[in-house]
Amino acid sequence: MPWLARAFLCALLKNLFKVSKRCAVAWAVRWRAECSDNPQLLSVVEAEMKTVFVLNGPNLNLLGLREPTIYGAHTLADVEQLCAQAAARNQLALRFHQSNHEGALIDWLHEAGQLQREGQLAGVVLNAAAYTHTSVALMDAIKGAALPVIELHISNVHAREAFRHHSYIAPVAKAVICGLGVQGYSIAIDAVAQVLLAPAA
Ligand code: DQA
Q1: Which residue among 35, 88, 102, 136 is least packed, with the fewest CB closer than 10 Å?
Q2: Where do the structural domains in the chain lie, given as residue ranges?
Q3: What does the DSSP assignment read for 5-61?
Q4: What is the pLDDT of residue 201?
Q5: Calpha distance 195→201 (Å, rounded)
Q6: How many A from CA of 130 to the centre of ligand 1?
Q7: Class of the CATH-defined domain 49-196
Q8: Residue 86 CA to ligand 1 centre (angstroms)
């Protein structure tokens, strides 16, 4: 077959493949729940989706037990489920983590930065918990990678002790959500998809 015909056929096949892959992904995203029992399909779908990181700082592993009058009765597992639902309805892959260690949070922010450089990051929802009020290192990690971060708190930190009114994260965050209980996580993921990822943002 002459080279021109071969090149034409190759281009045609590549484009056909791209279109059908896009259709398959759109279909699979819509029916993501069904493809969750097909790990291979799920990994193809997730590779095509941007990722939202939800990072939780110290003591948030104790949600449900810890000061329920302030933080409510929901556990961290409930929060993860809420986030999974929000990510799925916004066609985002979810990375959900909690650590009591500042360095672990920084390492995840660096991973988010790597995805950001690869064009695969949707955004980061960060509840740095007490580190919000103390951590220059978290602020530097966000600033250094120019990460699109939404700072999140379950409680209304401004209606609490004065030391909770200052945040090292807020000056480098795109937005701050606080006082909406665990529902704030869901709203933050919607905002990542609908505001941070929107063309005008
Ligand atoms: C918190 C508020 C912080 O002041 C506190 O240290 C936390 C939780 C919140 O989600 O309301 O641990 O970030």
Answers
A1: 136
A2: 1-35, 49-196
A3: HHHHHHHHHHHHHHHHHHHHHHHHHHTHHHHTT-HHHHHHHHHHS-EEEEEE-TTGG
A4: 58
A5: 6
A6: 6
A7: alpha beta
A8: 22
